[in-house]
């Protein structure tokens, strides 16, 4: 019973008592004489008189206890008014609720603050002009206005000399009424003194003299006063009252400064108080306050009407219509009817660019160069070619019968845009065509031609004037692709040539128009570059059809951004409404790994999918497995083991409710998950990267299966080139894999680094194409502000340029330094490229002009060093093998990325002396087997890569047959392997092509040319490079890695990782070959005394001597060789 006492553990029991808990029915008072009824008694009733008890249960001497009356039940209304028990809430829910309440209070506080700021503002009228110095006191009107402005701006009035200044409108209405009352009483007294007779009759009047008692004291008579007729119309009076009411609610801003110099002709007149001005009618018969204010307002000069702000862009365009370089040309009206589908017509009219059609077409007609800026989604890529087509461009009967050419930096964009424009114009594929490497749909009927910029550069080398084109559209110029920059520079010169020739004979040659389209406003490199365009071209800005996009940053920047992407995608799919998801990653390995994880967690098709849909899905997955191999230099540096979620559970166990729960509300996620049905909802996962087969790339543009959500995992190929429909959520890792080239060492590396702010904004914009969206950035805002550059570095500044220099010199551009690059590359890069061409024999060392050998090299659409291998490979029947080597090197390594399987596959086709010769065996076996898919699967080869090698073999064979008539060659699918002699010759051909990429074992150099140490394999064996002091190692994937390392090797690629520099595409080289293959890199010392020189020739003016050559910039000693010298005066010089 002790625990039922009221005072037992009183504080603890009070804290645990629930609001609706009743006291113990038989609680003991503990000597306090407290009855149970008093425990429920209201505190306000404690001081009232207690009711007498008929039955005191505390009286133990009472013989009989009479049962009391039952307590009546409380009515339903009172029960409802009682406080309801608080439902139980978990810690997680309570924290989310507190977070929501806190955000709601902050939002309300911000709203209130903005309302306060909107009602109070600083006016420029409070600033005094210097011309008012020495003017004296302010007029009454100026005092009132200044008082009003100071009060509005929150300035204290203690510094004013005249404190009696009252404002027109005061926030304190009572103070205004008191002032008005006092003023009226004062006037009433003045009127009473003037009218003594009325004062006697109205002594008992409370206010004024308007009331007069009649003979009947109960009914006072009202003396009506005749109002003076106002000269102001009723409409004007009404407008004034409305304006007055608006002014009382509005705040003054800087626009009020127009009234700073207002003059007042009645400044000398006595001023009435503010109350008098507010009084509706004066009693003494004077004009009303309203009339006086209106009369004063007549002298106020009317402010000038603010003119509509003109669009500078439109003014510039309209000006260009009269001042353009082609504005004097007279063009006949021409129109091509187009039969579009109604749905297509309705959709295209919603695009922003359609509203600028007239301005764009007038600008193109009157200018040779026009720049159009519009973000992706504005419709410029698909609609501008249609504008030109409808206006008659490319029509044989129009003034501009040439083709409409459109360049794209990527093949997938060229193909998809050609199909889209053809569908909108309702034209067949032979009229709206595309041409990419190894694939084309062009014909004699082609009117619009989509192509990659590399294709057009090849056409420029054959037809500099581009005579078959009437207009060129260079799209995605903001990406600053190497080919795009070169193309713009060359076309800027072609424009001048076409313009000059068209002035001589307009019927034969028409002027060329160029339209440069960019998704960003970074066009100053084009417009302000005087070497590019003498006259700045007009720039047309097109607004994008953009819905609002909410951008969410991570509080922390995780290292495992792939794992973070996986968690973010899962959360979006399970908690947020329908809408496609677009994820940006850096490379193929990351994309395929994340696709695999998502497909394991979520089904790809709904449970009720048909067998046809399941079969189509299986075929599509097989198509993705036939991934095209990455080109040379674009493969991943190392096969990175990406850790996805291995330690996620461990990390979550530490703090499940810290940052993740806080950010859920901020990022728009619901408090409650959608349940098991959402977790099991199908997710249609598709990869997208440039090396994916074209058929697999086009799947992202098709609608997903019904009942599924689309999720595209892509590289930066989805950033600007293509628009994927239905995307509402974007997950951005913020990184990209870019090529970096060291000019001094010649080392190329693909490094994953932060992208630019412009690219990040482009990625975020993908979520707002069809509706409002969200962008989830997997990095913090601090990283975005401090680590991200404003724009990406142009590709021309981070690429080797020997191919560019060779093509320019083939077009008779000898002074490459003076070429009008949009962004000039480093001079060191141009110097290194010209030096390499000299080593390869393509450029003369003295004149810097292209040689005949260089002209032959420029015929092939491959790198200059590979072109040299083709030209010198026409001996001993080696040309078919050289074509295979060159094709494989251009396309890239065809083996799978899986290292273990790759080593097993290579052993099947192994060559003991060269990685590149291994490719010959591989391609030969593939062709011998008929090029089947099963052969690729069995031997770990990429079907797409092998197909491209076959296509390039055919293309190079046709070029050789067309330009070298004496060579009889064909693509032989049953080609026999090379013999030993041919293998030696192929090794020398490879050495000649990579003559500037030679490495020597470090231990051999340290031994002074000796044999060096013996090694079982190349593991840990360092090599010295020609152009740098770094040590390089043979890559573990090389066939030479498992053998005794050769003394000297040639490599086709140098890649760098944080720990080592690796050589790939390694070929064993004999030192005696270098003197004959790389004469430009050799220097010779004095002739040896032994063997003795041998005099030859009839005139005894020549001799054969033995010398020790030194190779490369580090003068590596080579074995002694015989050379011929001739006498010139008293000196013996080397015979070339």
Automatic annotation (TrEMBL):
Residues 636-812 form the Helicase C-terminal domain. The keyword Lipid metabolism does not apply. Signal peptide: none annotated. It is an enzyme of class 3 (hydrolase). It catalyses: ATP + H2O = ADP + phosphate + H(+). InterPro entries: DEAD-box_helicase_OB_fold, DEAD/DEAH_box_helicase_dom, DNA/RNA_helicase_DEAH_CS, HA2_WH, Helicase-assoc_dom, Helicase_ATP-bd, Helicase_C-like, P-loop_NTPase. Residues 14-25, 222-243 have a biased composition (Basic residues). One of its GO terms (molecular function) is RNA binding. Its EC number is 3.6.4.13. GO terms for biological process: maturation of SSU-rRNA from tricistronic rRNA transcript (SSU-rRNA, 5.8S rRNA, LSU-rRNA). Pfam families: DEAD, HA2_C, Helicase_C, OB_NTP_bind, WHD_HA2. Residues 1-96, 187-270, 605-645 are annotated as: Disordered. Residues 46-63, 622-632 have a biased composition (Polar residues). GO terms for cellular component: nucleolus; ribonucleoprotein complex. Keywords: ATP-binding, Helicase, Hydrolase, Nucleotide-binding. Residues 255-267 have a biased composition (Acidic residues). Residues 361-539 form the Helicase ATP-binding domain. This is RNA helicase. It comes from Phascolomyces articulosus.
């Amino acid at each position: 019973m002790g625990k039922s006492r009221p005072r037992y553990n009183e504080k603890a029991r009070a804290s645990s008592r629930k609001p609706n808990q009743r006291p113990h029915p038989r609680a003991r008072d503990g000597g306090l004489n407290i009855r149970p009824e008093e425990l429920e008694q209201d505190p306000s009733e404690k001081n009232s008189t207690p009711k007498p008890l008929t039955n005191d249960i505390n009286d133990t001497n009472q013989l009989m206890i009479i049962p009391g009356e039952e307590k009546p039940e409380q009515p339903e209304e009172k029960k409802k008014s009682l406080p309801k028990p608080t439902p139980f809430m978990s810690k997680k829910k309570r924290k989310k609720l507190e977070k929501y309440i806190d955000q709601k209070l902050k939002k309300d506080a911000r709203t209130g603050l903005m309302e306060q700021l909107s009602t109070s503002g600083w006016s420029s009228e409070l600033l005094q002009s210097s011309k008012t110095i020495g003017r004296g006191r302010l007029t009454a009107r100026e005092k009132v206005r200044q008082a009003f402005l100071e009060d509005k701006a929150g300035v204290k009035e203690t510094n004013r000399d005249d404190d009696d200044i009252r404002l027109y409108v005061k926030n304190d209405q009572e103070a205004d009424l008191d002032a008005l009352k006092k003023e009226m009483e004062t006037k009433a007294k003045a009127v009473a003194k003037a009218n003594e007779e009325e004062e006697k009759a109205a002594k008992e009047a409370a206010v004024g003299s308007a009331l007069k008692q009649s003979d009947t004291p109960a009914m006072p008579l009202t003396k009506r006063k005749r109002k003076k007729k106002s000269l102001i119309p009723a409409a004007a009076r009404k407008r004034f009252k409305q304006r007055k009411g608006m002014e009382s609610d509005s705040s003054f801003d800087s626009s009020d400064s127009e009234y700073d110099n207002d003059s007042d002709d009645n400044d000398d007149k006595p001023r009435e108080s503010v109350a008098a001005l507010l009084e509706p009618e004066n009693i003494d018969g004077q004009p009303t306050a309203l009339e006086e204010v209106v009369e004063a307002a007549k002298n106020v000069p009317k402010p000038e009407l603010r003119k509509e702000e003109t669009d500078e862009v439109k003014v510039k365009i309209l000006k260009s219509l009269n001042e353009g370089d082609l504005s004097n040309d007279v063009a006949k009206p021409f129109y091509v009817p187009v039969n579009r589908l109604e749905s297509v017509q309705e959709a295209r009219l919603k695009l922003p660019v359609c509203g600028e059609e007239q301005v764009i077409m007038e600008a193109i007609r009157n200018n040779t160069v026009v720049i159009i800026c519009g973000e992706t989604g504005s419709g410029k890529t698909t609609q501008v070619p249609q504008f030109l087509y409808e206006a008659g461009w490319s029509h044989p009967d129009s003034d501009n019968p040439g083709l409409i050419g459109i360049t794209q930096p990527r093949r997938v964009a060229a193909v998809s845009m050609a199909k889209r424009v053809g569908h909108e114009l309702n034209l067949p594929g032979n009229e709206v065509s595309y041409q990419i490497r190894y694939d084309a749909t062009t014909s004699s009927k082609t009117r619009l031609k989509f192509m990659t910029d590399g294709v057009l550069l090849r056409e420029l080398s054959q037809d500099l004037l581009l005579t078959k084109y009437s207009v060129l559209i260079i799209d995605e110029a903001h990406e600053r692709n190497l080919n795009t920059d070169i193309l713009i520079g060359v076309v800027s010169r072609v424009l001048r040539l076409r313009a000059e020739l068209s002035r001589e004979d307009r019927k034969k040659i028409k002027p060329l128009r160029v339209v440069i389209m960019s998704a960003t406003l970074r066009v100053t490199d084009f417009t302000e570059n005087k070497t590019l365009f003498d006259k700045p071209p007009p720039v047309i800005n097109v607004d994008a059809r953009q819905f609002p996009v909410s951008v969410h940053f991570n509080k922390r920047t995780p290292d495992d951004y792939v794992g973070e992407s996986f968690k973010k995608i899962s959360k979006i799919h399970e908690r947020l409404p329908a809408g496609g998801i677009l994820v940006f990653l850096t490379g193929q390995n990351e994309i395929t790994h994340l696709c695999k994880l998502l497909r394991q967690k979520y089904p790809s098709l709904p449970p009720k999918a048909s067998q046809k849909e399941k079969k189509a899905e299986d075929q599509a997955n097989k198509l993705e497995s036939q991934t095209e191999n990455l080109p040379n230099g674009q493969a991943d540096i190392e096969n990175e083991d990406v850790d996805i979620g291995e330690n996620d559970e461990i990390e979550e166990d530490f703090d499940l409710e810290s940052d993740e729960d806080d950010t859920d509300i901020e990022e728009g996620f619901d408090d409650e998950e959608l349940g098991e049905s959402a977790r099991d909802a199908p997710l249609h996962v598709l990869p997208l990267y440039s090396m994916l087969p074209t058929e697999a790339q086009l799947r992202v543009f098709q609608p997903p299966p019904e009942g599924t959500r689309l999720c595209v995992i892509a590289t930066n190929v989805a950033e600007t080139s293509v628009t994927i429909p239905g995307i509402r959520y974007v997950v951005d890792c913020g990184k990209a894999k870019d090529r970096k080239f060291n000019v001094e060492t010649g080392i190329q590396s693909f490094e994953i680094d932060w992208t630019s702010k412009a690219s990040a904004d482009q990625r975020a914009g993908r979520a707002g194409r069809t509706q409002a969206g969200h962008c989830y950035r997997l990095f913090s805002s601090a990283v975005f502000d401090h680590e991200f550059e404003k724009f990406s570095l142009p590709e021309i500044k981070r690429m080797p340029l020997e191919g560019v220099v060779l093509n320019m010199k083939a077009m008779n551009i000898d002074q490459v330094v003076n070429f009008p690059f949009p962004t000039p590359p480093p001079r060191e890069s141009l110097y290194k490229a010209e030096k390499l061409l000299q080593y390869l024999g393509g450029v003369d060392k003295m004149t810097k002009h292209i040689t005949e050998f260089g002209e032959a090299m420029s015929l092939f659409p491959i790198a200059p060093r590979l072109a040299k291998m083709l030209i010198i490979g026409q001996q001993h029947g080696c040309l078919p093998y050289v074509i295979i080597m060159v094709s494989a090197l251009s396309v890239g390594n065809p083996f799978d990325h899986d290292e273990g399987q790759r080593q097993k596959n290579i052993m099947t086709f192994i060559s003991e002396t060269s990685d590149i010769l291994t490719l010959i065996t591989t391609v030969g076996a593939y062709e011998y087997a008929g090029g089947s898919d099963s052969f690729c699967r069995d031997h770990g080869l990429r079907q797409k890569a092998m197909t491209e090698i076959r296509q390039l073999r055919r293309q190079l064979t046709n070029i050789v047959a067309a330009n070298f008539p004496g060579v009889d060659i064909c693509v032989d699918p049953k080609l026999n392997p090379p013999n030993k002699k041919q293998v030696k010759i192929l090794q020398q051909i490879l050495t000649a092509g990579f003559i500037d990429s030679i490495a020597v074992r470090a231990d051999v150099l340290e031994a002074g040319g000796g044999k060096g140490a013996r090694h079982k394999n190349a593991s840990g064996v360092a090599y010295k490079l020609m152009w740098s002091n770094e040590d390089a190692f043979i890559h573990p994937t090389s066939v030479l890695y498992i053998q005794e390392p050769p003394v000297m090797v040639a490599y086709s690629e140098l890649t760098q990782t944080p720990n080592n520099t690796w050589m790939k595409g390694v070929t064993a080289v004999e030192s005696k070959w270098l003197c004959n293959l790389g004469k430009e890199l050799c220097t010779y010392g004095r002739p040896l005394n032994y063997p003795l020189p041998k005099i030859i020739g009839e005139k005894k003016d020549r001799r054969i001597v033995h010398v020790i050559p030194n190779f490369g910039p580090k003068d590596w000693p080579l074995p002694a060789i015989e050379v011929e010298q001739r006498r010139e005066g008293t000196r013996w010089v080397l015979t070339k």
